[in-house]
Fold each of these.
Amino acid sequence: MDASKTIKQYFRTVTAELVNKKSPLPLYYQIEEHIKALIESGELKPGDVLPSERELAESFTISRMTVRQAITNLVNKNLLYRKKGSGTYVSHKKFEQSLHGLTSFSEDMRSRGLDPGNKLIHFELSSPTEELIDHFTLEEDDLVYKIKRIRLANGEPMAIETSYIPVKLLPGLSQKVLSSSLYRYAEEENGIKLGHATQSLEASAATEEDAKHLQLDAGDPVLFIQRETFLEDGAPFELVKSTYRGDKYKYKMNIERLR
Ligand code: 16G
């Protein structure tokens, strides 16, 4: 029996009694709380599909509009998400990423007990653009690597990263090296000393290409992150432009009262 059938059956057998039409609590709220409780108890799991609004309305013996209101509220609280033409699903918990400390993707995934992975989709040595010449203070004939990787956690895509690194900083970098950690290779095999980074985050919408690589729909929310990483001596090491899945990540920072 597949998961959606189990859920459908569950709703069909127990829902009607769970809605108290005489209660002063609005019906949409009662349904909302019921679905929320099923998520909290683990009876509904991340990725489970909910029965359709029509089916829920039938099993609760209420109007579809009331069901829609309950579902919309849960979508707004990020407990459920809708996929166009496919249905309503239970959301996955987001990774809480600290904005304190310079870490690599591989380190972040391992610290969560997940297996980091990479899919290299572009590797090129090319002449730098004006932006890169300025950023890295390069000569016209210096070369830069352009590396585009899909970053995976237990095989699932989390982000697309496009990194630029001056070739003279890591002359031996190859496609093979990039199937594992770039920072490990730079630090442990090349004696590079990473110092600090500046990073900006902004909301954006997945393009068709992002959607294809990240298993999203075009237009879904994503986080656009740009990181400029510097060596201990202050020289620029990498410029990275990344698109992270909005349904997987939230960022956390500690802020202290300014006096
Ligand atoms: C992180 C960094 C990225 C760096 C990569 C190295 C952000 C936004 N980006 O993904 O700049 O290149 O780690 O990861 O945090 P790796 O050592 O696992 O290849």
Amino acid sequence: MTTHTTKIEKKAYAKINLGLDVLGVLPNGYHEVKMVMQTVGIYDVLTFEKAAEGIVITTDSGELPTNEDNLIYKAVKLLFDKYNVTEGVRIHLEKHIPIAAGMAGGSTDAAATLKGINELFCLGCDEEELKEIGVKIGADVPYCVMGGTALAEGIGEKLTALMPTPNCHLLVAKPDINVSTKYVYEHLDALESYEHPDIDGMVQAIEDGSLTGVVQRMGNVLQDVTIPAYPIIETLKERMIELGAAGSMMSGSGPTVFGIFYEEARAQEAYEQMVQDGQAKQIFLTGFVKG
Ligand code: ATP
């Protein structure tokens, strides 16, 4: 007897950047980056169910579009068109990842959708094909298909898998502000110079299994733009250090700030204290996730 799956569920994990450098602007206007990406334990849940026709998206988030502007829709459309799928799909998104936060929330939903649709409709794509389709949606999507610890170069799509970063207790705080990625990159271009983090050194520290080596090299050039414009980012970073974090940094183009703790009890106390402070809109205590 053959059984046909008609409904599946996928977790879409968020990422942080342990290091983020911008090397320059490419002739096509995109920025050439060099970043260390790390999957973390904050995730959205997507359910996929076959339907007779159409692409219907529902979500518990009041802030997101459910039409063709949602990256989930774009992912389905690319696969349906490529493989001439004539059936339809209903997708529900349970949103937990902070939105427009520098945690690749939209990109990871798109990546989970590529995987979910591939499975549900038995399209037979391997990971490489899904990454190739993913880059048409956004530069971070191929990384999200892969997950874990990786070095991302080019516009973020040239990926090298790394050993898993030694785990830690990770505090993540998103202040109640929205930062536009476009604004951040435009203002970075206007800066005369900035200090480049040692990404090669960080990659070596990861290969050596040294979490302290990683923490010592944490750096994100985009902070040079966001911190002067949004001082709450610096406030949250300093607060995490005050509460015992070994290192603290902004992820991606912000405004999310994370802190790395070596001890669970300290991280738990810091989490409770920051919830009490009320300076961040969303706070999570989590850790790294392997690919
Ligand atoms: P990155 O780290 O890749 O820069 P981000 O965390 O800054 O991503 P997202 O959460 O991906 O940003 O959201 C950016 C914009 O994308 C939002 O303003 C939102 O309207 C749009 N968007 C479309 N689809 C989604 C989705 N499924 N989840 C989140 N945002 C989405």
